[in-house]
Here is the input.
Amino acid sequence: MTGSLPTRVRTWAPTLGAAVTLAVVLWRLGDGPFLDGLRALDVRLLTAAAAIGLVTTVCCAWRWRVVARGLGVDLSLPAAVAAYYRSLFLNLTLPGGVVGDVHRGLAHGRDTRDVGRALRAVVWERTGGQLVQLVMTLGVLVVLPSPVHGYMPVVAVALVASLGCTLLAGRAWRGDRRSPLARARRTLAADLAGIVRVRGAVPAIALTSLLVVLGHAATFLLAARAAGSTAPPSRLVPLALLAMLAMVLPSVAGWGPREGAAGWVFAAAGLGAGLGVETAVVYGVMALVAALPGALVLVATSVPRPRVLVRSEGASNA
Here is the structure.
């Protein structure tokens, strides 16, 4: 019983942190930016969100399919798109922000009778997308002005040094080949080799991830315009990418880190924290509307299938 408390703390601490972030934003700025964000929505904006969401979801599903094929748990593109929509909807409506991804991996694992590989395919798919997002964000922040522009050379050097040290440590490490860490390394290496062996896998993962980031950035810019921002895209894009980095953190049904990060970057850029939070609210509703087809998929897959009774020939002749 005593060992269960730390586990519960680790489980709920990220979500609690997101709730605290949201509470601090409300305390500092009030509910005005939230209400203004809701009032800024209209049919054209939500239609654009749904259209962009369709493109980004298909790209994510394609990326997942490529990764899954490399791990030997292939799935069709229509099935991948439907499962990804369901995953997005669950991520945006349940605490934590990753429940949908876990559900997607488990459901695919049950279908392929290999839950381990299916879950790893989801992890690799999300990791690949986030790496491309990180590289693209760093590139934009180096080129365009932003609140963190002056720190980017140091950040870039630190990231390269960290990656180099990690690779060197991995090569130098020698341990028991039967240890859990050694088995994990072998699994990781085998997964990467399998993905790379798929023809055109790396370009496909990079291209689909790039399109996803561009789609999310375009949605953020539309949200900023709806919130009343008149800043040029060259000024808004870095802010959008910075805010999007925070969206990978655990949240309360999508809320919390996004509003905190958007408020901070907009304030640091001289545009006002209120405008940043209002933009984040508009973006959040647009993202939820874009994920609504996932609710239909969830309902369709939750309905139990009727059992078909197959009678033997002898029984039918009795």
